Amino acid sequence: MQALLQNLIYGVQLGSLYALIALGYTMVYGVLGLINFAHGDVYMVGAYVGFYACTKWLPFQDISVHPEAAWHNLGMAFITLMLAILLCAALGMLIERFAYRPLRNGLKDLDAHFWGFVIALPLTAKFITIASPFGLISFIGVGIVVGYVMRPLIKHLASRIKLTSSRLNALITAIGVSLLLENGGILLFGANPNFIPNLLPERKFNLPGGISVQSGQMAILAVSLFLMISLRYIVLYTKPGKAMRAISYDIEAAKLMGIDTDRVISFTFAIGAGLAGAGGAMVAAFTHIKITPLFGLQPGLKAFVAAVLGGAGNIPGAVLGGILMGVAEAFVAGSKYVSYRDAIAFCLLILVLLFRPSGLLGKNVVEKV
Amino acid sequence: MLTISNLTVFYGAIQALDSISLEVNQGEIVTMIGANGAGKSTTIRSISGLVRPRSGEIIFEGKPIQELPAHEIVKIGIGQSPEGRRVFANMTVRENLELGAYTRLQKKVEVSSDIEKMFTLFPRLKERERQSAGTLSGGEQQMLAIGRALMTRPRLLLLDEPSLGLAPFLVQSIFQIIRDINRQGVTVLLVEQNANQALRIANRGYVLETGNVVLAESAENLLKNDDVRKAYLGE
Q1: What is the pLDDT of residues A67-122, one digit of tens each?
Q2: Fewer CB within 10 Å of terminal CB in chain B, N or C?
Q3: How many CB atoms are closer than 10 A to CB B220?
Q4: How sure is the predictor about A369, in pLDDT bands with cuts at 50, 70 and 90?
Q5: By CA distance, what is B101's nearest residue in A?
Q6: Interatomic CA distance for residues A95 and A34, integer angstroms
């Protein structure tokens, strides 16, 4: 009984994280019908933002030396969380603008300049460290030059190739963005694992029945819950939220209502990416897990399963799917079949696809003429 | 008010419109009739910016609009009730109407007074206010689609097959409503399969065949025209 409850608590905490990432998958799927496989890598970037904020950017104090600095550090942790959310939201918007939007609306000059900088990054990094002032200047220089070289090329391509919003194109693009973020991460952050040291006092709360909860676990759960409730409010009661629901039901009809669909789609990516970034930063800060540029893969994949489990495109479904997955994983991890903890996600996926292909809360769409 | 000249539209390699020209004057009801695939819906969808023409011009109140994105076209005063109604079935009737006023959603008082106006025009919708739009009957959904388009405060209303799939007595009342809307000062461009009814309420009509305008006449003359009677009025 004690082990059962303990596993349940761990499972709900793990599940709230999966839910946080799954929400981004499901919202983007809802509005665009696109599985944004780069989403797990945004979670990774969130963890790195957390890492840099905690170890380099912000004046955290060592609590083993100055125990009285706990409140100061808590404030800094809050700023770290905000930074992770904002930077990842910006990254999400960038991904949407430069990877997915050209598939819908065609290539523009701006696309040439953006991809010019992306190409300039490895070119410059090969010879100079980007972090030095000279490196930064040459990076910007190369970026501008490559962008101008690519402009006529892209114009030529845009007139020759008809980019369509075919699902396969979008999916391949998503995998491309994912690879770009992973390998770009290796280039920028280095391939060596990093971790965030203990910056907040950690306590263990003993509950009746012999079970215990760690403060870090509670923090993850509380912040995730708060973010999910805010999301529900945004989607149900705000103007962009209403537009999101309209778009997810019928994007053309939404345009006829005067909704600027590109803007709302961008907003959707920002929110989803912000949630994933918050999750990444919290995991890195509270569990001290070793972060690498590839560590978004596994949780990203599991969160994708969670989104499908709950019903792709369905927001409460993503939360339910995430929590279920977390709990299932916790119970497997707590049993003697511990080596199957990563496999349980996919067993659940197979079962759901067999018996409820549209997910637990997903509806079978009935078309009425 | 609206002038279309030499509009040509392709879907991939397939030509849907072949250099169509037509005109809608302030205060009129103009109807486009023709068989399936003649290009009526494509014309409507080009005006509202859902389809990009390959060449040609669409001028609304003196300004070319063929390059504008769809949501901008709504803002300058062209509303559309699309074919197949396409109401947001997962939202309530009221939410659907509110979305029609999306661009001015922050002006709450104004929006709810506009919604009240829709309820006087369509009393059936008032009864269904809190019901989700997916549970409405076909006729009620059509009223909602028209109401939603009117919530965008159009000066030109594009109606694509408003009577499609409705019971005969409902068809009558939909056409009555279109006439009422027009009397309140909204210019209407109407696409209809039901050519007979459409020509009865319209001032002028265009007959489309495989992407071309083959006849442009006053509605009265079209009703008398032998070819039109044979081909579209079933006589």
Answers
A1: 888 889 999 999 999 999 999 999 999 999 999 998 888 888 888 899 998 988 88
A2: C
A3: 14
A4: very low
A5: A257
A6: 13
Q: Please give the Cα distance from A190 to A290 (Å, whole number).
A: 13
Token pair, residue A315, equals 């927001």
Q: How many domains does chain B contain in total? A: 1
Distance CA A327, CA A12 (A): 6
Q: In what order do the strands lie in the sheet with B187-191?
A: B78-81, B156-160, B187-191, B29-34, B204-209, B212-218
Q: At what angle do helices A297-310 and A315-334 cross, to 10 degrees?
A: 120
Domains of chain A listed by start with CATH number? 2-98+196-355 (1.10.3470)
**What is the secondary structure of A29-47 as a DSSP string?**
HHHHS---TTHHHHHHHHH
- B84 contacts A257? CB cut-off 8 A: no
Taking CB atoms and an 8 Å limit, are B74 and A246 in contact across chains? no
> Would you say B115 and B98 are in contact if contact means Cβ atoms under 8 Å apart?
yes
pLDDT in tens, A193-251: 999 988 888 888 888 878 888 888 899 999 999 999 999 999 999 999 999 999 999 99
Instruction: State the pairing for strand pair B29-34/B187-191.
Output: parallel
Proportion of chain A above pLDDT 90, given as a percent: 59
Q: B16-57 pLDDT, tens per residue?
A: 999 999 999 999 999 999 888 899 999 999 999 999 999 999
User: Distance between CA atoms of B208 and B193, rounded to whole angstroms?
Assistant: 12
Chain centre distance of CA B88: 18
Contact B90 A245 (CB under 8 A): yes
- Averaged pLDDT for residues A3-23: 93
Question: Which residue of A162, A257, A364 to mutate against B (max B Cβ within 10 Å)?
Answer: A257
Residue among A160, A151, A164, A139 at smallest CA distance from A111: A151
Task: Name every chain A residue with its beta carbon within 8 A of the beta carbon of B90.
Answer: 245, 249
Read off the pLDDT of residues A28-50 as tens digits, 9 standing for 90 and up: 999 988 999 999 999 999 999 99
Domain that holds residue B140: 2-232
pLDDT of amino acid B232: 82
Q: What is the structure's pLDDT at A206? A: 84
pLDDT at residue A360, as a whole number: 87
CATH number at residue B120: 3.40.50.300
Which residues from chain A sit within 8 angstroms of residue B100, using beta carbons? Answer: 257
Q: Which residues contact A133 (CB under 8 A, 6 or more apart)?
A: none
Q: Calculate ∠ Cα A188-A191-A194, nearest 5°.
A: 95
Complex ipTM value: 0.93
Average pLDDT over chain A, rounded to an integer:
90
**Tokens 């280095």, residue located:** A190
Helix (H, G, I), strand (E, B) or coil at A162: coil
For chain A positions 221-260, those within 8 Å of chain B (CB to CB) are 239, 242-243, 245-246, 249-250, 252-260
Within 10 angstroms of residue A167's Cβ, the number of other Cβ atoms is: 12
* B230, pLDDT greater than 70: yes
